[in-house]
Model the fold of this input.
Amino acid sequence: MKKCFLFKALCYALILTFAVLTAVSCGENENDPAAPGNTEPEENNYSDDTADPESPGVQEESVERYQFPEDADYGGYNMRIITQDRSDWAWSEMWAEEENGDPINDAIFTRNTKVEQELNIQITEFHVSDSSASARRAITAGSDDYDVVFTDSAQGGNLASQAMYINLYNVPGLYLEKPWWNQNAHQSAELLGKLYFTTSDANLVTNDAIWVVYFNKTILRDQGMDDPYALVKNNEWTIDAFYEMAKSASIDIDGDGVWTVADQWGVSTHNLGFLAYFICQDQQMVRLNEEGEPYLVSPDDKFVNAFTKASRLMDTQGGLYLHAQGSYPGRTADLDHARKTFIHDMSLFCTEVLSHARAFREMEADFGLLPHPKYDGSQTQYLTFMIDTVPAFGIPVTVGDVERSGVFMEAMTGVSAETIMPAYYDVSLHGKFTRDEESIEMLDIIRAGRVFDLAVLYNWAGYYSAIIDNGASNNPNPITVFERLEGRVAAAIERTLEMFLELD
Done:
């Protein structure tokens, strides 16, 4: 339980360009304007006030900035938020006790202090190991314990369908169309025109947990490969190009015919990497119809082809896929995670969460960041998979003052755009961890293309877990998974819809 009391002037200013929504989604959605991901890439150029206006990424301010409500005064109210502890790999606390010189910590302190002063509140964070279970117990008991609940996004659907959250579209003080909100997340989580949970940059795991592609510049140079930055910019960064580069980098260095720690692999990751490869080829497991109802996508030729292209990257026998969290010859405690094997130059690529950029500062070799590849050049946008641990917030039905919670979350998210994101995006990732200007350009693309899949948010009948297991297997076939689980998924979706129809 933590509180902040002092005010420091804002350290950073927001310079954003917010793009117009278009008909692009994480699926074949030309006829489905409600599908997730229907946006053109947006330019997210955050910069310090003191930056050279002619330097890369600095633009004139062109969009609305958050303004506190003039009459908001909550009389010193104790605003209680509960958050999921992911501190073993992400910056998951929304609290900073004091300034300590770290840009992110100090930006959090500044943000919280500003919100506390302007709304006349005190912020209390409950940072726990299972925020979903704690919130469920309190709400089930009818107890007004929390004003805002943050859980893993995969838990948001369960809480919402059990009538524990308020429809965010009905919350006074929330203006979800504003540029400081992720419109893709709203579209991804919406059912029947209702939105019970969504993401917010107020919680940094929202960014730390997005899935990216890292590449080792030393291995790339030694292999004489094409510049992947140029491939991205020229619309040539496709799943086939990714595969060919990973395959070429797979070298049985000691020539013993067994892929071990002594060899060079294509990609370090774990099985969730398969889902990122698949979804980012403009595919979805679940989509919405014109009525906003979810349905299981039947695998057509493109679905199967994208599935196959993603699956061939999971080849452990051919040295493409280093399953560092699984088992492989020579695996030790020092090499039991993709971020560790990548640091030790064991693979050309690493597909993992964005937070690992901070760990990779230990590398001697230079590295870069990339979005996940497209299916082919006709795909409009590079897409970014938001995994099930991306946090989503909801407002409990037990809350005493719904508008107060709405005003608070609007303020936290809006002010985060001015303080947290510049520190995270420019100062931390750029100045401290990444090593080239192109990585910052790639981060623009990565953040602009963030999408969920409803199958992940609700995991109806375990479908997305089964898809991952099949895609990472030696005998992948999405049709068999679909046929085996189609009836159960449809029944689970129907139950969810019945519960949603009863909600406000």
In short: The domain at 211-385+455-501 is CATH 3.40.190.10 (D-Maltodextrin-Binding Protein; domain 2). The chain has a mean pLDDT of 87. DSSP finds 18 helices and 13 strands in the chain. The chain has two domains: 77-208+390-433, 211-385+455-501.
